[in-house]
Design a protein that fits this description.
By secondary structure, the chain is of the alpha/beta class. It is built from nine helices and seven strands. 22% of the residues are buried.
């Protein structure tokens, strides 16, 4: 403990403290606590390190963990839209709540980036190449988005929130076409005939095209 003025400031427990308590090197502490794969460490040694860390209340430094595991421990969420449209998107709020729960469950963090469509390619590639994130979630894919093929060429872990034909990237989406069709059919069943369709986005966005097609189907 260090005396600062009239207060006693507790000193931070370091990996060296854990190493001294467990009778191992700092490198071994780092390998065990970061669960680095492919390293032969005995079960007894692992247990001593884990017990010492818990006993001392050791909290690994985020930068050190990233260096040891060669991972940033961060998932990037990229929203390709105008910042003015973010607060009005009720669906996005629900998505964010659940994403945060999942990344925290896996001891990760979520980095949110809002990108104007005209800057999207540079932003995607910069995030991927900088190693500041371990994977990318992209909301709002577009048919004219050549940045996606660049990410695919780099074999960078990417998941689309919205399907995009012709790409090998993973995606999670709702059936926008069927949903729009059912909405219009509901109006027709109630006797409405002059029914308009507002896609809420330009046709370059896949969701907008699917909604329009569902409207036409009905």
């Amino acid at each position: 403990r260090v005396l600062v003025g009239n207060f006693v400031k507790p000193t931070r427990v370091t990996s060296q403290d854990v190493a001294d308590t467990a009778g191992v090197s700092r490198t071994t502490v780092s390998l065990v606590l970061n669960d680095v794969k492919g390293i032969q460490i005995s079960t007894d040694t692992r247990q001593r390190v884990i017990h010492a860390a818990k006993e001392l209340g050791y909290v690994p430094d985020a930068a050190g963990r990233a260096l040891a595991s060669r991972r940033a421990q961060i998932i990037g969420l990229v929203l390709v839209r105008s910042a003015k449209n973010i607060t009005s998107d009720a669906f996005l709020t629900q998505v964010l709540e659940n994403l945060i729960d999942v990344v925290h469950e896996h001891e990760l963090r979520l980095l949110i980036d809002i990108i104007e469509p005209q800057h999207q390619k540079e932003a995607y590639l910069q995030l991927a190449r900088s190693k500041h994130i371990d994977g990318l979630i992209l909301s709002g894919p577009r048919f004219d988005d050549d940045a996606l093929s660049a990410l695919e060429d780099h074999d960078f872990p990417t998941v689309l929130m919205g399907q995009l034909p012709g790409t090998g990237l993973c995606s999670v989406d709702v059936d926008n076409r069927k949903a729009a069709c059912e909405a219009v059919e509901h109006l027709i069943q109630h006797g409405h005939q002059r029914i308009a369709c507002i896609t809420n986005a330009p046709p370059l966005y896949t969701a907008a095209t699917d909604r329009l097609n569902g409207y036409k189907d009905a």
